[in-house]
Amino acid sequence: MKTTYRIAIAELRSLFCSPVAWLILVIFAVQVGVAFGNAFDRQVQGQALGYTLWDVTASIFTGWMGIFPGFLRNLYLYIPLLTMGLMSREYSSGSIKLLFSSPVTDSQIIFGKYLSVLIYNLVLILPLLVVGVFCGITITNADLGLLFTGILGIYLLICAYGAIGLFMSSITSYQVVAAMGTLAVLAALNYVGEVGQDYAFVRDVTYWLSISGRADEFINGLICSEDLLYFLLIIALFLTLSVLKLRAGRRKESRGKTWGTYGAVVLSALLVGYISTLPTLKLYHDSTATKRNTLTKTSQDIMKQIDGGLKITSYMNLLDDNYAIALPSQLKSDYERFEKYIRFKPDTKMEYVYYYDEANSQLDFRLEGCNTLEEKAQKMANILNLNINMFLTPEQIREKIDLRNEGNHFIRVVERDNGQKSILRLFNDNEKHPSETEISTALKRFVVQSPKVAFLTGHETRDIYKTGDRDYNQFAENQYFRYSLRNQGFDVVTLSLEDQEVPEDIDIVVIADMKTPFNEVENDRLNKYIARGGNLFILGDARRQEIMNPITEQMGVTFMSGTLVEMKENDSPSLIAGHITQRSCAAF
């Protein structure tokens, strides 16, 4: 170890005698200062203008205007300039012969050189540490876990860059070639994640190899064992390759044995990396103060109650507007949408079923000239370079599941081993995909009985199946509105009191602005429901007091005559922003 330290100290002396090393430190420190000054200034200006500051630490350091993401885009430029001379300088000057003749091993040479890089990288990120300490002092309740986890991610990234640069420097005596080679390898590792995404095994390997976005989870305050092991494996891989290259210069070995050793090392790293991606072996630590990267306590409790297997089957219609979501090349991105849940139930399976059928989509206008569904599907498959045989025909998909009630749009069916099923849909809004609220709501149906809401019919009440302005389809039944009762965990039905009693499984009865009074039978059935403690939700227009008051008076509530208005310069007087007072809450 002492020999390794001596080599590291000697290399540090050499580094700090170079103007390039000092230039990199100065440029990085200036960039940190400027970026932090701008980000902090935005917060100060907002506070001076009277805006409420929210999640200040994350606003300064993460997000599209944060400091950390900006640095990730430029870090690859610094390290090749630093590492290009680590070994190539020894080759070009001839001092490598002195190293070979001295009592040091190949591993000591490489590890000593790399140790100097680790120490230099600590000095490089020192401005970020200073900024972090400053924010911890000046920001009330600063999220230090988020901040220092982000710095850790950046440090691991530049250390991985350093290992790659050291290897490239060990295979050439030209420093410029070493720098260009390092840039080429970094570019390849950033691009490789897009290679072979249409093929299952290749997809897993190339996606793991990609260095692009590896530090993002750290920046967001989440330490995942997969990402941590990735950096350690990349560092170990390129350091091992560097040792083998140095050893090959000392010993005469056949080319086949040399390349075989290289191949074994690379395959071993890929195997360990692949194993680290298995959900059952992943570990997580959310270092943020608010646990923003973790499911809420409610969602975690739901996941704990779901025993047995869980399967999420996505049905993708080639002729639907949302066909691109589940293309084979997008499956890794799609997996990330459910990773928070798979974290708490690693045995969750994700499957995909591809088919084509009529979907009333924008594609109908883009596939003019195709007269049949088969022709449209064939044209789309050709455009996307996909095999049409991977898509089920309308007849074949209906044997598995009939999606015509869903308009043949993209849906996911969540299914337990015991046969329970729930549906996740896409919504007609900017976010499109279901959030934790909608996903947990769908899963909650497996562990508790969903509340059932009955809208009374007759008497010209507002209708949940009509889409007019005065009716309630959007609020109650619309499949593609995120906040409809159906998508928020309620079962919605209609009920006629003239035809039947209120069933025992009804949790809430809604009377929506009826225009004619109930008859004696209906009143009696409603009163029985109220007497047994049923929940009642009553809505009435200002002109309906005479009709609604007979129902509400027995509960000590009456509709008053007149209309409430709130005078505003730009809004209709009838638009009132109501707030529930503490007194009204206490009444319940």
Summarize the amount of helix as a percent range.
40-55%
- Largest sheet, order of strands side by side? 4-3-5-6
Distance between the amino and carboxyl termini: 72 Å
- The total number of structural domains is 3
Low-confidence stretches: none
The largest sheet, given as strand count, sense and whether it forms a barrel, is: 4 strands, mixed
What spatial form do the alpha-carbon principal axes imply? elongated
Radius of gyration from the alpha-carbon trace, in angstroms = 32 Å
Relative strand content: 5-15%
Structural class: alpha/beta
The chain-level mean pLDDT equals 88
Number of strands: 10
Query: What's the number of helices?
Result: 26
Account of the protein in words:
Helix 10 (144-170) crosses helix 11, helix 14 (225-250) runs antiparallel to helix 15 and helix 16 (297-305) runs parallel beside helix 22. Helices cover 50% and strands 9% of the residues. The mean pLDDT is 88. The chain folds into 3 domains: 2-286, no CATH class; 297-444, Glutaredoxin (3-Layer(aba) Sandwich), CATH 3.40.30; 452-587, no CATH class. With 588 residues, it is an alpha/beta fold. The chain has helices spanning 2-16, 19-48, 56-61, 67-72, 75-83, 88-93, 96-101, 106-124, 126-138, 144-170, 175-191, 200-209, 216-219, 225-250, 255-276, 297-305, 331-336, 339-342, 363-366, 373-383, 394-400, 436-444, 473-476, 520-531, 545-552, 582-587, and strands at residues 222-224, 284-286, 310-317, 349-355, 411-416, 421-425, 452-456, 491-495, 508-512, 535-539. It has a 4-stranded mixed beta sheet, sandwiched between helices. The chain contains 26 helices and 10 strands. Residues 451-547 form the ABC-type uncharacterised transport system domain. This is Gldg family protein. Keywords: Membrane, Transmembrane, Transmembrane helix. The chain crosses the membrane at residues 20-40, 60-79, 117-139, 145-167, 174-193, 228-247, 259-277.
